[in-house]
Amino acid sequence: MKRGISILAVVTALLLSFALYEALIGAPTERTMGDVQRIFYYHVPSAWTAFLLFLINFIASIVYLIRRNPKTDILALVSAEVGVVFCTVVIVTGPIWARPVWGIWWAAGDIRLTTTLVLWLIYISYLVLRRFSTSGQTPVIAAVLAIFGALDVPLVYFSIWFFRTQHPSPVIGGGGSLDPRMAHVLLINWAAFLCLAWLVSWTRYRLEVVKREVEEAQALESLLEGSR
Amino acid sequence: MSFFAITRATLEKDIRLEWRSKDAVNAMLFFALLVVVIFSFAFDPTAEESRRIAGGLIWVAFLFAAVVALNQTWARELRNQVLDAYRVSPAPANPLFLAKALGNFIFVAILEALMTPLFIVFFKLRALGETWDLLPIALLGTWALVVNGTFFAAMSLRTRSREIMLPLLLFPISVPALLGMVNATSAVLSGEYSPRVWIALLLAYDVVFTIACLYLFETVLEAE
Asked: Which pairs count as long-range contacts for B206-209, CB under 8 Å and 24+ apart, including other chains?
C-alpha cells in the first residue's frame, strides 16, 4: 500500500513537471488571447477533475445509503474534500483569465463559471454539515445532502441558461476547433491532474481510515477505564 | 390511521399550537417588516428602479423570514421527546413531513399576504405585466422554499448550532429556485419579458425536490 503511494507520487511529480513545461513552453501561443490563454491548461483539467470527484461523491453517497459500508462513506468524504480544492482552482483561475479577455472579472451570465460556483457552494455546505454534525449518523445525513446537491445541478444549469437570455454576457467561442497541439497539452495536463487528485485522495483516505480506527480505540479504552 | 388522517392530525396540531402561541408568525412578520423598512431606507428607489429591484428584495426578505419559521419546525418536537415517540410509533414518516411542510407553507403564505401590501407602499410598485401571474409564482416559489427548508431543518437537528446550519444548507441548493422566483417576479413587474420559462423552472424544481424529500425523509428521520 505504502509502496503504491510512493510510486504514484513519483509518477505524479514527473507528469506534473512535464505538463507544466508543455503548458508554458511546449504549447503554441494563442493568436488573439496571447499567453494568458495558457491558464486554460490549468483551468479546464481542474474543472474536469473536480466534476469527476463530485460524481464519485454522488455515487458513493447512493451506495452508502444502500449498503451502509463505512468505506464508501470515507470515499464520499474524501472525494468531496479534494473536489472542493480543485473546484476552488477553477473558480480562482476563471476570473484571472476573464479579466484580460472579457475585460471583466466575473460574468454572472456565464453558465459554466456560475454553475461551478453554485456547485462549489453546495459542496462547501456539505463539508460544513459534516463538520458540525455531532451524532453518529453524520454519514447518512451527509449522503442525503449529496444526493440533493446532485439533483440541483441540472436545475442550476438551466436557471443560468434562462438567466443568460435576459442578461447579456460576453460571447465565448463555444464553437471553433482546438489546435491538435493544444488538445494534446490539455490531455497531458488532465492526466497529471488526475494523478495528483488520485494521490491526494488516496493519502487522505488512508488518513481518515487511521483516524477512525484511533477514535474507535480511544472510545473502547475509555469504556474499559470506566468499567474498571 | 391512513396517510391523510395522520397528515391532517399533525397539521391541525401544529396550526393550533401556532394559533395559541403565534411564536413563528410573529417573529417572521416583525423580521420581514424590518427587512422591508431597512431596504427602503438603503435604496430609496424611484418607481422605475423599484420595478427592477423589487423582485429580488421581496424574495430575499421572504427567504430570510421563512428561515425563522423553518427553524422552529422541529424544535417543538424535541421537547418531551415527541420525535422519538413518533419514531417508535407505527405511523409512516412521510405524512409527518408533509404536514410540517404544509404547515410552514401556510405560515409563510400568511406572511407573504401581509407583507406584499407593505412592499407595494414602500416601493411604489405597480406591475406592468400580467398581475395575476404573480399568484402561481408565489405559490410555487413558497413551496420551493418550505419543502427543502422543512427537510433541511430535520437534517440539521443533531448538529451543533442548529439554527445557523439551516440557512447554510438551504441557500446553496435554493439558488435555482431563487433565480426563478426573482426573475419571474421581475418579469411581471416590468412587463418586459414573459415569466413562463421561470414558472416552468420553479415547477420542475418543486416536483424534483418534493419527490426527493418524500423519498429520503424516512432515512433522515431514522438517522437523526
From this structure: B206/B140, B206/B143, B206/B144, B206/B147, B208/A151, B208/A155, B209/A148, B209/A151, B209/B144, B209/B147, B209/B148, B209/B151
